[in-house]
Amino acid sequence: LLGYIGIDTIIEQMRKKTMKAGFDFNIMVVGNSGLGKSTLVNTLFKSQVSRRSAGWARDEKIPKTIEIKAVSHVLEEGGVKMKLTVVDTPGFGDQINNDNCWEPISKYINEQYEKFLKEEVNITRKKRIPDTRVHCCIYFITPTGHSLRSLDIEFMKRLSHSVNIIPVIAKSDTMTIEERLEFKQRVRKELEMGGIEVYPQKEFDEDMEDKSDNDKIREAMPFAVVGSDKEYQVNGKRVLGRKTAWGIVEVENPNHCEFAQLRDFLIRYNMWCVAKRTPLTQLLHHSYFKYNRVTEASS
Ligand code: GDP
Ligand code: MG
User: The Septin-type G domain covers which part of the protein (predicted)?
Assistant: First the structure.
């Protein structure tokens, strides 16, 4: 039957349906308390891609996050609708004993997989299964300028078995350009030595084009980010930034930090994948692989 209808036709039909219905894209932010996770969630929603779409009037101070909480907005670009959900998590590392501090996060991730799977095998299957699976997890690294802490390595290692990890250097405005470069290099090396696979994983490069695109991302990682949900006037334009005694750090200015790269990598690239290729974006595809691993591991 497949051969008769033609797999290309089916993929094209699925793509059209996905474009019309929109798709879910779920990101989770994880890391020590106070590294700017909640701020970056707001930055993501407030930054260029979504500035038009949401009525944002929040100017109050961000409270300390005390529970796992998901925030969603529908974004639209080039006719593709995407429901972006960011799952904010309470920072860990506050306790003296941080044993098993990844457990609530792991549990949340696995529960979403299970929920999706249950719906999928349900006889009275919903037409469109809400997808709350975590497609990728942004891991915030403390900008120490030294090394990754053992907790970071342990946490990423555990999480990388069930979710795509994208490490970022938090609060990178606290580092000089040289320190930042050096720290990025060191982190890449330590991740490699620790055997931690971050997204995009080499084993999923499908062809040479994929490999060269992904190599560029891998060489640029971890993105050194700065977050803010406050706007300032710079050269007659309103920009998201952090005002310091010596000037304004512009969050979306690629000369100041790598937030825009991270955002484009996460959002634009995924929208582009949906629009140009198949309904399964690379990330969704990969999380499916990850999912298989989870089930293998638990059975
Ligand atoms: P969370 O605990 O990781 O969610 O951190 P928050 O988003 O609540 O931020 C903690 C504090 O760090 C707040 O005072 C923020 O204004 C500040 N902050 C957030 N992002 C940045 C950043 O990129 N650079 C600097 N210097 N401070 C930041
Ligand atoms: Mg928080």
Answer: 21-296
